[in-house]
Fold this sequence. Notes:
By secondary structure, this protein is an alpha+beta fold. It has a domain at 12-51 and 85-137: 3-Layer(aba) Sandwich (Rossmann fold). It has helices spanning 26-39, 53-65, 73-81, 92-101, and strands at residues 12-18, 40-51, 105-110, 131-137. It has a four-stranded mixed β-sheet.
Amino acid sequence: MRYPFKCDDDSFEGIFSEHVLEHFYVDDARRILQECFRVLKPRGCIRLSIPDVSQCVRDYLKAKERVESAHLAAECVRLLTQEFLHLSVWDFERLAYELESVGFVEVRQCGFREGSDSNMLFDLESRSDESFYIEGKKP
């Protein structure tokens, strides 16, 4: 995925990705998003599900408040940043910026299995508590 997709421009009506971009450094993730933009048809939709660093921080702070879990609070951060070979972390604002930077419009945060195209709602329930969902359109 670090190389150009072997697809023609304007080939697909939609792209769905769940828990993938965090396995790439930000510069590589940006190139992937550029390729997604290139291969989408005009008005095509991209839908991404990403581990939410904001939720990780909330979980960390909540754990720190409780005496019985304070010693494990840092585990929330370790799981997101070091487990599962993650190379980047994302929140809605950061990913929205990257999507808009490559040309996507109408970028918005969505809920679990909520979105503008019912054909793209493949979200895994097992990841719903740790993820945020974002969509954008190619003009």
